[in-house]
Specification:
It is a multi-pass membrane protein. This protein is α/β, with parallel strands linked by helices. The protein is built from 21 helices and 21 strands. Strands 8-7-9-10-11 form a five-stranded parallel β-sheet. Strands 13-12-14-15 form a four-stranded parallel β-sheet, sandwiched between helices.
Length: 565
């Protein structure tokens, strides 16, 4: 009524233009919508009345965000207990392969176990695992993620660079805090293009250092690199070349496989067999399931494959861990994996077996579309290859607990980002930190080699130690040659090496030979001149022929000194 009176009538335009001090404070209206502005709400109780406010909520204009004032946080926390219904939805994504489903299963177990441990704690946060199938290319991932994106407090995964690239527009649109456990490409360190991306695995620039260390340990001085011909493959090759240069190891050639099929891979391998000298091949191929199986079948189809020593890519090693019979075809192949103390790995598997949570884990995976993987994959064992995924789960739990203690609103996913990027904890792989750019700092890696029907653990690489790589195997390696002697970095004979070198660069060889011949000729000429000088000098001296100092200097080729004045 006071507003109508001041406006001089019931005209809405006139009423919206008034401003006065009313019973609830300053009264004003939005000129466009007519909504009340400059309003203040207060939280009061019997003890904390209007003259002793706990919390106020105010907004001066619809164009600005509301302001919440907590006048006494300590008293507020004592009066208002935490909600027993507080929960965080953890959206976890992966492709439907055994190795990736095993990682999902391990993370689901960690969250369910955390819920059980905190069930008796009042106000504890409940973690709700929500599993999403990304498919092999990411298209299925878009279909799975878009409907639930708003409900994701944090998005863990997807574990593949190409799928992560496909899902980035959705992640950015909904401002979802993302934590990946397997994508190591440096491309995702760009905070402009990927503002919400963090990871619990180090980048390839760090991971690839172990390859150079191992090659240096076995005194292998030349290698061949095989990558996939796309932006991620080229970035991998560049990182590996840098690692090799740091250890003074020559990269003879880097081959790029054009397609992820048998034709493309066989063509590359035949080119290597026909032209390249090196025996050591570093594979950086993102091959999963069918493509990985195709690669290992080449060892039975082409006999020359057994003459090479392969460093398998992370993806091939993950497949090999779930299919040991396939890797057995690739004798003397190397795999790198996250290092976990054997006792820790044994303990977590023992606890998982005794927890009784497997049925609930399987139910969550079935709901997420992983029914086939639950049937055909071994999900009862946690492997060292799942360690970075478990570290991601620990990071989420730790970040949420710190955010809750700081009074952060968990309904907005982006609020967790700064806490994820300030992580410092002792995970399954040891102590690590995630910095403000979202990258993990360090990790330790184990290293093994395939021998007949088994693998042999060779040692551990730890950047915090000196030397970084420590060979700990006590039994000798039986190489694919059947010998216990370390093979040379080539199996080629001298004719092949010379033929390959000359055919590869005949102009360089010709110039080198001419330069060598010219150098020898100069040395021969100088030597003959010196010898002739000595003979003449000795002959003159033995015959007592008087020779002046000036003539002797001229004979020796020196300039005559001017006569003293």
């Amino acid at each position: 009524m006071q507003a109508v009176g001041l406006a001089g009538g019931a005209s809405s335009t006139a009423i919206w233009s008034v401003r006065f001090d009313g019973f609830t404070g300053t009264v004003a209206f939005d000129a466009t919508t007519g909504q009340r502005e400059e309003i203040v709400y207060s939280l009061v109780t019997k003890t904390y009345a209007a003259y002793r406010l706990l919390i106020t909520w105010s907004r001066n204009s619809s164009a600005f965000n509301p302001v919440i004032r907590n006048f006494n946080p300590t008293e507020t926390k004592a009066v208002i207990l935490p909600s027993p219904l507080r929960a965080v939805t953890v959206c976890m994504a992966a492709a439907p392969t055994c190795s990736e489903t095993e990682a999902l299963n391990a993370m689901v177990y960690v969250f369910l176990l955390q819920n059980r441990k905190s069930s008796s704690v009042q106000g504890a946060t409940t973690f709700i695992p929500l599993v999403l199938d990304t498919g092999l290319s990411g298209v299925q991932g878009l279909v799975s993620l878009i409907p639930v994106a708003r409900s994701c407090s944090v998005f863990v995964g997807p574990g593949r660079d190409r799928v992560a690239l496909a899902l980035t527009p959705v992640v950015n649109q909904f401002a979802i805090t993302q934590l990946d456990y397997n994508t190591a490409e440096e491309l995702f360190s760009d905070r402009v293009l990927y503002p919400y991306f963090s990871r619990s695995t180090p980048t390839n620039a760090f991971n690839y250092r172990i390859y150079g260390e191992v090659c240096a340990y076995f005194a292998w001085e030349r290698v061949v690199i095989v990558g996939f011909d796309d932006q991620f493959g080229r970035a991998r090759v560049e990182s590996m070349q840098k690692s090799m240069r740091q250890r003074n190891i020559h990269v003879e050639r880097a081959h790029m496989v054009p397609t992820a099929d048998k034709e493309g891979l066989v063509s590359t391998m035949e080119t290597i067999y026909k032209k390249d000298i090196a025996r050591i091949i570093i594979l950086l191929l993102p091959f999963y399931d069918d493509a990985a199986k195709m690669f290992f079948n080449l060892f039975t189809e082409f006999s020359y494959m057994n003459q090479y020593i392969f460093f398998l890519s992370n993806e091939l090693c993950q497949y090999a861990a779930s299919h040991p019979a396939e890797r057995n075809k690739a004798q003397s192949s190397f795999c790198v994996f996250p290092y976990v103390l054997p006792k820790q790995l044994e303990t977590i598997n023992k606890e998982a077996a005794q927890s009784g949570l497997y049925k609930e884990q399987a139910r969550i995976l079935l709901q997420g579309g992983f029914a086939a993987e639950v049937d055909r994959c071994n999900l009862t064992t946690i492997r060292s290859g799942d360690a970075f995924a478990i570290d991601a789960a620990y990071t989420v739990i730790d970040s949420v607990n710190r955010a809750v203690n700081a009074g952060v609103n968990l309904n907005r996913s982006a609020n967790l980002l700064s806490y994820v990027r300030a992580t410092s904890l002792d995970g399954l792989t040891g102590n690590f930190s995630i910095d403000k750019t979202g990258n993990r700092d360090v990790a330790s890696f184990g290293f093994d080699i395939q021998m007949i029907n088994r693998t042999l653990y060779l040692g551990r690489w730890n950047s915090r130690q000196s030397p970084s790589f420590r060979f700990t195997a006590t039994e000798p390696i039986v190489w694919m040659t059947g010998s216990k002697e370390v093979p040379a970095d080539t199996f080629r004979d001298i004719q092949f090496i010379l033929g390959t070198t000359v055919s590869a660069s005949p102009g360089t060889i010709v110039l080198s030979v001419l330069g060598f011949v010219g150098t020898i000729a100069v040395f021969a000429f100088c030597y003959r001149h010196y010898k002739l000088q000595k003979l003449v000098e000795l002959s003159l001296q033995s015959n007592c022929v008087p020779v002046t100092e000036e003539e002797m200097r001229r004979l020796r080729g020196a300039h005559a000194l001017k006569p003293e004045v």
